[in-house]
Design brief:
Spore Coat Polysaccharide Biosynthesis Protein SpsA, Chain A
């Protein structure tokens, strides 16, 4: 079995060498390893780092684009330039943890139907490691303490609720990549989320209860920059719309199509708003509200959207008081209902 660590790069020279070194540390018996770095026409300040990476090991290959072809197109080019059976698309500012390749290869060898194996990742902000991303899901899956197994189409259904799969902690089969047609450029920064859903529709997905990578957050990452712009709404809408159309093929027998799809989509989008407000990431909550309104412009959603917009501009203490008041009212209603029964 051959594993390709594909590293698309643009203007991340201060992190690139650490990413390549983390890939080279993935020693595993019986596994052939290659590292492909595809530079997307970075500035001259990055050329020294690229040259050093090229000289680290014979397994490292550096490809240089003559002009910038865009983020998602560079992802696809990096994968196409590789030759491995199993692929990890590692961002140039992220890292793999030791033993990651060995853990995922065991899953691919054990079941030929597996198309995607992913685990958790730790968030790195500056020099500090923060919380771990990647959560378990309830539902029709085979689960033990070490893994969850999603048979088609169960992962497609849970993926709509955004399971926090980072590129640095996900490995997929080249054959499956070819079947779904790679990453979709029209989804922008949500292309990976859409890609995981497409893989879950054609094969088995395994979630390992292990941390496989380090996900770095900083103000120069491409996903961070796009999230600060309103293009994020369009990207998110395209990806969510595509996934909802995929869900039409797996809806339960006898279920009403519109209610089934709307319930899935509302659950995903409204939970995103709730999480953003609790973070508190109000700007993201406001944009997600606009996305929800564009999908379901009903009176109820309009009122809910106005409430979210109002909360996004209120001081945090007032928002906290309103949350406390809402919880108190809900608790009183619950007690009255219990007394009546």
């Amino acid at each position: 079995m051959k594993v390709s660590i594909c590293i698309p790069h643009f203007n991340q020279h201060e992190y690139l060498e650490r990413a390549v070194e983390s890939a080279l540390r993935q020693a595993c018996d019986g596994i052939e390893l290659e590292i492909v770095v595809c530079d997307n026409a970075s500035p001259n300040c990055c050329q020294e780092a690229l040259a050093r990476c090229e000289g680290m090991d014979d397994r490292v290959r550096v490809i240089r684009n003559t002009y910038n072809i865009g983020m998602v197109a560079n992802w696809n080019k990096t994968v196409r330039e590789s030759t491995g059976d199993i692929i990890c698309l590692l961002s140039a500012d992220d890292e793999l943890l030791p033993g990651a390749v060995e853990k995922v290869c065991h899953e691919f060898e054990a079941d030929p139907e597996v198309v995607l194996v992913y685990g958790g990742s730790k968030v790195v902000v500056g020099s500090e490691t923060q919380k771990r991303l990647g959560r378990r899901f309830p539902g029709p899956v085979e689960r033990n303490y070490e893994r969850q197994i999603f048979r088609p189409p169960s992962f497609l259904e849970v993926n709509i609720s955004k399971p926090q799969i980072q590129l640095c902690s996900a490995f997929f089969k080249r054959a499956a990549y070819e079947i779904v047609g790679g990453f979709k450029g029209e989804a922008g920064t949500q292309a990976d989320w859409l890609f995981w859903g497409e893989l879950g529709a054609i094969g088995t997905v395994v979630r390992l209860d292990a941390t496989l990578g380090l996900y770095r957050v900083h103000d120069r990452s491409q996903s961070f920059e796009s999230a600060l712009s309103f293009k994020w709404i369009l990207y998110h809408y395209c990806a969510e719309d595509y996934l909802l159309r995929l869900l039409r093929n797996v809806e339960p027998q006898g279920a009403d199509s519109s209610s089934f799809l709307n319930a899935r989509a509302r659950e995903a989008s409204l939970s995103s708003i709730k999480n953003c407000l609790q973070s508190p990431r109000r700007r993201f909550a406001l944009r997600q509200m606009l996305l929800v309104y564009s999908l379901w412009p009903s009176t109820r959603m309009f009122i809910f959207g106005c409430a979210v917009a109002l909360l996004s501009f209120m001081p945090s203490r007032i928002v906290a008081c309103l949350r406390w008041l809402a919880r108190s009212i809900k608790g009183m209603k619950r007690k009255r209902a219990e007394i009546k029964t």
